[in-house]
């Protein structure tokens, strides 16, 4: 294997869940990351790996910085970029007042391209290299996101929203056109370069039973596509969903009955699940996207860690912009930690970094592709500056352990700590402090 690029700094990644396996966290304080083209060739101690360096290769050396796999945001709405931080008393009025009018504009492909480009650059500036992204009901919105992602050679998962009722006419598809347009997008984009498709019924209240059934058929017909939707976010939404589908055992069961629970299905929020729901999540290997800044901002509720961990449900964390208030996965870790504390759970920093990298990859069944520095994985990584602000510099002089260093980064860090972002071995955004 030819080594084509080499980076020397501290290295952090996970081979497993640190909550279950004490050897899962890999840390090399003087580390070397070697690439072969777009892939990881090796990651380890500098003094052990330096013998593999071709003599003519220049090593990029960043003392004091941390090399980490790019963050993975498993639930985000790119069309809501321009309405982040919109005030409303809860989810349903927020959707009516801001979300639907904003999403209307994505029938215009030029607008969709412009927002998609900004959105992807904003993700990269925050160190996020893969996301599971919602478009709007318009197929053009998914085309725009994928086109912009392909131009930057990013691994993105995205889909056109399906919704055929209980929303303004100008945002409705039908059960048939929603399925037909989604299938055309799957054929066009799923597996093209680094792009992956997610079948995206918005949530049960805005889909007829027939639309959800057709989404389930598509999911069955294309088993390696993703599925993404919302469930059990807010109490009013839960009551509404139950009243619309009175035969279902629970809100989650609406999706289950339609064949929408399977590996690669990503369920956002999952605050108001019961024990039977949690068992079905685990049995079907469906995953949770916990969206802390959104849940706090919209007052949706506090996610329950202990029963989720006990049930062994694949878990990830996500921004949910525009319901979420930050694109930063470091800020998302901060709010995740506080939600865990409010429920009596303690979340170490190692677990937070795992959830934002290889834990997310595993929840998406992409752990052999992204999320860690395992040789052969794609070289999406970031250079973190743990002393990017005066306060971080000062606090960093009083660190007693690696766990404490990572914890401080998760609590005080944000986009200012992301010095460089690489996708498929190439720098995609150059920030500051890296010379
Ligand atoms: N439920 C249905 N649509 C949405 C959305 O756009 N954002 C959030 N947070 N919840 C939803
Ligand atoms: Fe959402």
Summarize the structure.
This protein has helices at residues 46-49, 91-104, 109-125, 139-151, 175-189, 209-221, 235-244, 251-257, 275-284, 292-297, 305-310, 329-342, 349-355, 358-363, 390-395, 402-412, and strands at 5-14, 25-36, 39-45, 59-69, 71-77, 128-134, 156-159, 161-162, 195-201, 226-231, 265-269, 287-290, 315-317, 381-384, 418-423, 426-430. The chain is an alpha/beta fold and 435 residues long. Helix 4 (139-151) links the parallel strand 6 and strand 7 (156-159).
The global form is globular
Portion of residues in beta strands equals: 15-25%
Q: Major beta sheet, specifics? A: 9 strands, parallel
Distinct small molecules bound, one entry per kind:
guanine, fe (iii) ion
Counted by DSSP, the helix tally is 16
* Mean of pLDDT: 97
- Taking the alpha carbons of the first and last residues, their distance comes to 29 Å
Count of strand segments: 16
Radius of gyration: 21 Å
| Structural class estimated from helices and strands | alpha/beta
Helix content range of the residues, please?
25-40%
Low-confidence stretches: none
Molecular structure report:
- One of its GO terms (molecular function) is guanine deaminase activity.
- Keywords: Hydrolase, Metal-binding, Zinc.
- Belongs to the metallo-dependent hydrolases superfamily. ATZ/TRZ family.
- With 435 residues, this protein is α/β, with parallel strands linked by helices.
- Helix content is 37%, strand content 23%.
- The chain contains 16 helices and 16 strands.
- The protein has helices spanning 46-49, 91-104, 109-125, 139-151, 175-189, 209-221, 235-244, 251-257, 275-284, 292-297, 305-310, 329-342, 349-355, 358-363, 390-395, 402-412; strands at 5-14, 25-36, 39-45, 59-69, 71-77, 128-134, 156-159, 161-162, 195-201, 226-231, 265-269, 287-290, 315-317, 381-384, 418-423, 426-430.
- Strands 5, 6, 7, 8, 9, 10, 11, 12 and 13 form a nine-stranded parallel β-sheet that branches. It has a seven-stranded mixed β-sheet with strand order 3-2-1-4-14-15-16.
- Strand 6 (128-134), helix 4 (139-151) and strand 7 form a beta-alpha-beta unit.
- Helix 3 crosses helix 4 and helix 12 (329-342) packs across helix 16.
- It is globular and about 65 Å long.
- It starts with a strand and ends in a 5-residue tail after the last strand.
- The mean pLDDT is 97.
- The protein binds guanine (GUN) and fe (iii) ion.
- Fe (iii) ion (FE) is lined by residues 75, 77, 230, 268, 320, 323.
